[in-house]
Amino acid sequence: TTLVLIPLLAAAGLTVAKLSGRALGHTGGTIDKLESIPGFRTDLPREEFLGLVKRSGLALADHTEDMVPADRLLYELRDVTATVASLPLIVASIMSKKIAGGAKAIVIDVKTGAGAFLPQLEASRKLASSLVSIGTRLGRKISTLITDMSQPLGLMVGNALEVREAIETLNGNGPNDLEDLCCHLGAELLALAEKETSNSEAIAGLRGLLHDGSGLTKFKEMVTNQGGDASVADDPSLLPAATNRAEIRSPRSGTIARLDALAIGRAANLLGAGRLVKEDTIDPAVGVELLRKVGEKVRAGQPLAILHVNDETNLAQARSLVENAYAIGNEAISPPALIVERVPSL
Questions:
Q1: Which residues are in the Pyrimidine nucleoside phosphorylase C-terminal domain (predicted)?
Q2: Where does residue 243 rank: exposed (0-12), middle (13-18), buried (19+ CB within 10 A)?
Q3: I want to staple 10 with a disulfide (CB 3.0 to 4.6 A). Which of 57, 64, 284, 339 is the partner?
Q4: Are 62 and 42 in contact (CB under 8 A)?
Q5: Is 160 exposed, middle or buried (0-12, 13-18, 19+ CB in 10 A)?
Q6: What is the pLDDT of residue 142?
Q7: Predicted model pTM
Q8: How far is the C-alpha of 63 from the C-alpha of 233, rounded, in Å?
Q9: Interatomic CA distance for residues 39 and 320, integer angstroms
Q10: What's the CA gap between 3 and 162, in Å, rounded?
């Protein structure tokens, strides 16, 4: 959501500073995704970072030696020491970056479900409450939305693939669930910033900024400001692309009853979209493209997903994971609710 939400909020008139990280879990982090854009710089010194925010209203950067330096080390180590799901480390990582970035109003998307760091709803609630409690004590306006990650958000799971999807969404042509979530999160922040009082009007306004190209204009500005090639926004074929594709086809006709986000993430990781160990190099081009999601009908033999592949070493295992991530039933089923709960300021 970050790749869409940050330029969208800037287009709505907010000043947005965001510190993000690299891979945690099964695919690349926000910084890995941004670095699939040719030339894009994420290692901004504090003064340059804050200068960009002041001048253009937005910047998105990695931890640096003068901005949350300890978290940078802990962030990378959590990925390879089985502590990705450690609640204290998650809270410290999230809030340290928000405070260091100078945020006065904070909205956090807390995931729950199979693909989340904390898949159980009670654990997600505990995380959300801890974040709100710390933010309140530090004098910040803060709220969290607990959102569903039982199936992947959007249709792309990868690095350059997700940048491509973000560009499509900022152009008004993205997946409905990704657009909806970004507009709901954005509306929360507009309310905290006292820019809007009506949630429905805020959502409608943000949706308009996606469909009239204002969000995409801010995305291009951010890319240019940080040394990247903004022409990728007009020609996404300039982004890294995998040399091979492998289709996953439906074994039977019916309705998609389940799409396991964790299995899809593991498959993307095996293809090279994430890190198995800290020293691994991410392949920005690879990942999984979803063609069918929960609630959609499918006929036997129709494609369910496409694997974007460069190195075929783990292709068979990745294929098996994606095949088994899908469950196809006979009964009609609705997709899971996108927003599970809202945890407001104390």
A1: 255-329
A2: exposed
A3: 57
A4: yes
A5: buried
A6: 95
A7: 0.93
A8: 25
A9: 35
A10: 9
Specify the amino acid at residue 37: I
Helices marked H in 20-146: 30-34, 46-56, 69-78, 87-100, 121-137
Q: Does residue 284 carry a pLDDT above 80? A: yes
Provide CATH code, domain 239-329.
Answer: 3.90.1170.30
Hey, what are 234's tokens?
């007009």
Percent above pLDDT 90 for the chain: 76
- 94-106 burial: b if 16+ Cβ within 10 Å, else e: bbbbbbbbebebb
Q: 323 and 266 in contact (C-beta within 8 Å)?
A: no
Q: Assess whether pLDDT exceeds 80 at residue 82.
A: no
Nearest residue to 107 (alpha-carbon basis) of 36, 223, 8: 8
- The yes/no answer on whether domain 2-236 falls in CATH 3.60.40.10 is no
Tokens of 285: 């081009």
Whether residue 346 contacts residue 132, with contact meaning beta carbons closer than 8 Å, is answered with yes
Nearest to 26 by CA among 244, 247, 286, 243: 286
| C-alpha 169 chain-centroid distance | 13
CA dist., res. 104 & res. 263, Å (int): 37
At 105 the three-state DSSP class reads strand
Please state the rounded mean pLDDT for residues 21-35.
Answer: 79
Q: How far apart are CA 84 and CA 306, in angstroms?
A: 28
pLDDT tens-digit readout, 123-144: 999 999 999 999 999 999 999 9
Query: What is residue 75's three-state secondary structure?
Result: helix
Confidence at residue 75, expressed as pLDDT on a 0 to 100 scale: 65
Q: Residue 66 pLDDT > 90, yes or no? A: no
Domain extents in the chain? 2-236, 239-329
